[in-house]
Design goal:
Elements: H1 28-46, E1 58-63, H2 69-80, E2 84-89, H3 101-109, E3 114-119, H4 126-143, E4 152-157, H5 162-175, E5 184-189, H6 200-209, E6 215-219, H7 228-241, E7 244-248, H8 251-255, E8 260-264, H9 269-280, H10 284-298, H11 308-313, E9 318-319, H12 333-338, H13 340-362, H14 366-372
Parallel strand pairs: 1-2, 1-3, 3-4, 5-6, 5-8, 6-7, 8-9
Helix pairs in contact: 1-13, 2-13, 3-4, 5-6, 5-13, 6-7, 9-10
Bound molecules: phosphoric acid mono(formamide)ester (CP).
Length: about 375
């Protein structure tokens, strides 16, 4: 019998049957219950206690972009729950051959028991695709009187990267002894020469942390504004939680006094928006041209790096990154080396967030399972 391995999990019943498409869709009580379950699952896993309550079920995930950590977290979570993880390249499906997202959802939902999707490169498309897929699955299940619960998990879209931001929140809570309320946390743009990265990580992180009472500063050069909707969520979340949210164009000022810093790159919003038409037209040359212009714009801000000088401006801040980081561009080699284990531990939280999402959506008596061990 395993008890008292983590915080209270009494809100879990509200998560049964739920998909996660943005953290904004969920109340803070829902998110607290989920994170409590994730902490409990981590403790059970570290104690070597199996929670394979979804034996024989299929955990299918489609990725329309590269991934190392999230694919591994999806597979690791599914395996720990006793599921069969299957991960496919989204471009190898019939989506590009005219199949609608609702059809895709119905076709995948008739076999799978959970569905993960990453669709993060095209502004205005990824989250909408996931919602259409969910409609397709739900419609199919209802029309065929199929009682299976097939939750959708957003594994990064154009708006949010919820399994990342929740893993970050779990890690920050552990670092700060249980809560981010009142903590000064900076999310900053940083220079990247490798590719024009999605906006969804900073959008997801600032909009989530502001809801839990953190004093969040967002820093970026002009031209790297984030989408209006998650910015409004961050402002509203801060007002409701007693935290705060502000934007600056000065990286030094954003680092001064910060207790945690999250410097990472993303692409210029206007150019990221130009991808929509080029992608719809299948115009690879235009996509390449947009990417080159984005990298040229990034290169005008090479001084936006998290280095030892900037870390010295902070209040001995914890460094976070969702990874992969461009070492020597987003972060100096010395800072990355100092926080190498910390960012790996941050990344490791995602497997427990995904486990909690799948288990909470699919196991009606999860509270009893977690309180009693298995
Ligand atoms: N942070 C993150 O999502 O990593 P991957 O892109 O490797 O999945």
């Amino acid at each position: 019998m395993i008890t008292n391995l983590g915080p209270d999990t009494t809100g879990l019943h509200a998560l049964y049957g739920r998909s996660l498409l943005t953290t904004h869709d969920w109340s803070t009580d829902d998110l607290d219950a989920l994170l409590a379950a994730a902490s409990r699952l981590e403790a059970l896993d570290r104690a070597g206690i199996r929670v394979d309550v979804l034996r024989g079920e299929l955990a299918y995930a489609m990725f329309f972009d590269n991934s190392t950590r999230t694919k591994s977290a999806w597979a690791g979570a599914a395996a720990r729950l006793g599921m069969h993880p299957v991960i496919v390249d989204g471009s190898s499906t019939q989506v590009s051959h005219g199949e609608t997202a609702e059809e895709t959802g119905a076709m995948l939902g008739m076999n799978a028991h959970a569905l993960g999707v990453r669709h993060d490169l095209i502004l205005g498309e990824g989250n909408a695709f996931m919602r259409d897929v969910q409609r397709g699955i739900d419609g199919y299940l209802a029309a065929t009187d199929d009682a299976r619960v097939v939750p959708i998990v957003n594994l990064q879209c154009d708006i949010d990267h919820p399994t990342q931001s929740l893993a970050d929140l779990l890690w920050l809570r552990e670092h700060f002894g249980g809560s981010v309320a009142g903590r000064r946390i900076t999310v900053s743009w940083a220079y990247s020469p490798s590719y024009a990265k999605p906006l969804s990580v900073p959008q997801g992180v600032v909009s989530l942390l502001a809801r839990f009472g953190a004093h969040v500063t967002l820093a970026h050069p002009p031209g790297y504004e984030l989408l209006a909707e998650p910015m409004a969520w961050a402002a509203e979340g801060a007002a409701a939680s007693g935290g705060s949210f502000r934007v600056t164009h000065d990286m030094d000022e954003a680092f001064a006094g910060a207790e945690a810093v999250y410097p990472k790159s993303w692409g210029p919003q206007v150019l990221m928006g130009e991808r929509v038409a080029a992608n719809r037209a299948g115009d690879r040359e235009a996509m390449h041209d947009i990417e080159q212009r984005a990298l040229a714009q990034n290169a005008q801000h090479r001084e936006w790096i998290c280095d030892e000088r900037r870390m010295a401006l902070t209040a001995d801040a914890l460094y976070l990154h969702c990874l992969p980081a461009d070492i020597g561009a987003e972060v100096s080699p010395g800072v990355m080396e100092r926080f190498r284990v910390a960012v790996a531990r941050e990344a490791n939280k995602k497997v427990y967030v995904v486990m909690a999402l799948l288990a909470a959506a699919k196991v009606p008596n999860l509270t009893a399972v977690l309180n009693g061990g298995v």
